[in-house]
């Protein structure tokens, strides 16, 4: 029933977004935090394979903040759901992603997946930064300066616009929808392929989904 509901919902969304044989890129935002088990599960098992498959059709924004909050506008640091190490991890990722603005989404998600799997940034370890070929000295300078604070304040602002009740929160388009959120957590590729039914990367995935419904 859950999948049927989201298929109907996303189909309606698709009618509003895809008006020609050439699909428009869809904006996707992921709100997450560096030590959240659910964020790790989504990014490694859902987001990364989906981005590898559909990156040509998406515009991705990654917001590493979650249920954190700034103290005295960030000048007294931040308070995070999973403690100070999570704040450190969020900050490292904000700085690294800022330096990766010219890179593609596959590279960005590969970097974030590394951080989520190893939690390197939460320990001040630059292993994932180095793997992503991001200048370590510039990340360290960002983390210890006002630049890092401003990046996390920006992520806080973006997160507060949504006021997520659950982390990670995934928004397809511009407006949060609970059914889309639930379906994205369960099958992110399938959710997007319900929109991009006419593109080659989705055809096999979409057809296999349709066959399962026929067999039910």
From TrEMBL:
InterPro entries: Interferon-induced_GILT. Residues 1-20 form the signal peptide. GO terms for molecular function: oxidoreductase activity, acting on a sulfur group of donors, disulfide as acceptor. It comes from the Eukaryota. Keywords: Glycoprotein, Signal. The keyword Glycoprotein applies. Pfam families: GILT (PF03227). Belongs to the GILT family. This is Gamma-interferon-inducible lysosomal thiol reductase. It comes from Mythimna separata (Oriental armyworm).
